[in-house]
């Protein structure tokens, strides 16, 4: 079969150039969308009288046969198949003859065709990620509910800061992924606009009904400018940003758990299913699943930056540089899809060690509580902060715990301390004083769990299928 673009060419293409230009090895992934878009376009051509009803049906049935071949793995790729569009068109011509198949591309360009395929693919593939994100959130939320009693150090600057509930730490990531899910839905909504019928760049000369095409393909509407329709790849960039940003979050989540699983912390142990060993040190149990999540997030950031760099200097409208959208997009999608499932597996099988968490709690974490004791007695916080700091220094100088300072020691620092100040040295009481919305008290954490459960129930939906 001659190339779809070959009419004005007489010289042969350099074989290396052919390999350089060919994209079927990766864009074959769009076969469903390409066939679906072509079937809809045939309907638009029939409406304008370019195809008869019989011809439109021949094209539809022929494309259904092509669909079956792709689905059952019998589609035979030929050496001249440059991309998914030319491969499908070539096979359609073999099935129904070129006389009818050759009419399908009337008024259509590969420019609006590939933009349509990409939007259809990403819309449906993005929807398939939604239940994966939801499952991570749900598993994390239910784990938080079942382990709410455990208290551990919270950290800033990787230094022990204040006591928090283990569940509070878990829920940080449930809320983070909830925001990621909402961003994903926004990306899908912006992606779901129809470029088909825009032609190569200037529009369709046969006045095909683009609104009908959008409706048939379940788009939310048409892209109103044909130049924009064929050149825009912001939806690709946005998805790759979403995937990168989500993996940045899961990379940070992984980093915490990697630290917490070390002997120095000992707060958690990874399940064997998500760990590996050492080839030389038999005692090692490495958190490789978490390290790979952390590592792969870097590759997705590279995909994003690379494609944005490709885009930044392109003139209007379609340029072959845009062929570089698919490989990083597909890689980013496959990676984030796998990682969401791995991360859910990790959090659902993790073993926690509450005694190690409790042992890591030291009374200097309650220095802020000591300052707040005086605040409740009317002393300005700026003054109480200095008093508490002096108490920390006194305990350090003596080599004792802050809880071992006597009432007299504290009263020497400030006359506002009374006998009940000794109740400050209670970790459970400390976390339960953080009782405002979003805090780490039992009541506040239960409120977070209830809110997440209500959101999950409200937004529950059947899984989309691409």
From TrEMBL:
Superkingdom per UniProt: Eukaryota
Enzyme class of the recorded protein, top EC level: lyase
Pathway in which the depicted protein is active: Amino-acid biosynthesis; L-arginine biosynthesis; L-arginine from L-ornithine and carbamoyl phosphate: step 3/3
GO molecular function annotations of the record: argininosuccinate lyase activity
One Pfam family hit: Lyase_1
Domain (Argininosuccinate lyase C-terminal): residue spans on this chain: 365-432
GO cellular component terms listed in the entry, alphabetical order: cytosol
Domain Fumarate lyase N-terminal: 7-302
Homology family: Belongs to the lyase 1 family. Argininosuccinate lyase subfamily.
NCBIfam families: argH
Protein name: Argininosuccinate lyase
Organism: Caulochytrium protostelioides
């Amino acid at each position: 079969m001659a190339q779809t673009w070959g009419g004005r060419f007489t010289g042969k293409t350099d074989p290396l150039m052919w390999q350089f230009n060919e994209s079927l090895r990766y864009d074959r992934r769009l076969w469903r969308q390409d066939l679906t878009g072509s079937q809809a376009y045939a309907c638009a051509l029939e409406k304008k009288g370019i195809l008869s009803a019989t011809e439109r049906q021949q094209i539809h049935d022929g494309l259904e046969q092509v669909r079956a071949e792709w689905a059952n793995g019998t589609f035979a790729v030929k050496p001249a198949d440059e991309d998914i569009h030319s491969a499908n068109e070539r096979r359609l011509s073999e099935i129904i003859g070129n006389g009818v198949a050759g009419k399908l591309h009337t008024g259509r360009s590969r420019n609006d065709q590939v933009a349509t395929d990409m939007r259809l693919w990403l819309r449906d593939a993005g929807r398939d990620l939604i239940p994966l994100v939801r499952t991570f959130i749900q598993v994390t939320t239910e784990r938080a509910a079942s382990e709410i009693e455990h208290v551990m150090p919270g950290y800033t600057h990787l230094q022990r800061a204040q006591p928090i509930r283990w569940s509070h730490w878990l829920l940080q990531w449930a809320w983070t992924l909830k925001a990621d899910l909402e961003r994903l839905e926004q990306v899908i909504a912006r992606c779901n606009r129809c470029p088909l019928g825009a032609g190569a760049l200037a529009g369709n000369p046969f006045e095909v009904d683009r609104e009908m095409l959008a409706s048939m393909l379940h788009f939310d509407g048409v892209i109103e400018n044909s130049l924009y329709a064929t050149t825009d790849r912001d939806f690709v960039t946005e998805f790759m940003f979403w995937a990168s940003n989500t993996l940045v979050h899961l990379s940070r989540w992984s980093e915490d758990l990697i630290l917490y699983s070390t002997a120095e912390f000992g707060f958690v142990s990874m399940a064997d299913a998500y760990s590996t060993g050492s080839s030389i040190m038999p005692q090692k149990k490495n958190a490789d699943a978490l390290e790979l999540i952390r590592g792969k997030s870097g590759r997705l950031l590279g995909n994003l930056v690379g494609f944005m760099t490709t885009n930044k200097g392109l003139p209007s409208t379609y340029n072959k540089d845009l062929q570089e959208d698919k490989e990083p997009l597909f890689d980013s999608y496959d990676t984030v899809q796998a990682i969401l499932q791995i991360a859910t597996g990790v959090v659902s099988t993790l073993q926690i060690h509450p005694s190690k968490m409790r042992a890591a709690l030291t009374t200097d974490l309650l220095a802020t509580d000591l300052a707040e004791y005086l605040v409740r007695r009317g002393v300005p916080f700026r003054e109480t902060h200095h008093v508490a700091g002096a108490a920390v220094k006194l305990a350090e100088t003596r080599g004792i715990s802050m809880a071992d300072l006597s009432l007299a020691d504290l009263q020497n620092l400030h006359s506002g301390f009374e006998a009940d100040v000794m109740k400050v040295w209670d970790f459970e009481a400390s976390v339960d004083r953080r009782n405002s919305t979003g805090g780490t008290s039992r009541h506040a954490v239960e409120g977070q769990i209830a809110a997440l459960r209500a959101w999950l129930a409200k937004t529950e939906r059947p899984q989309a299928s691409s």
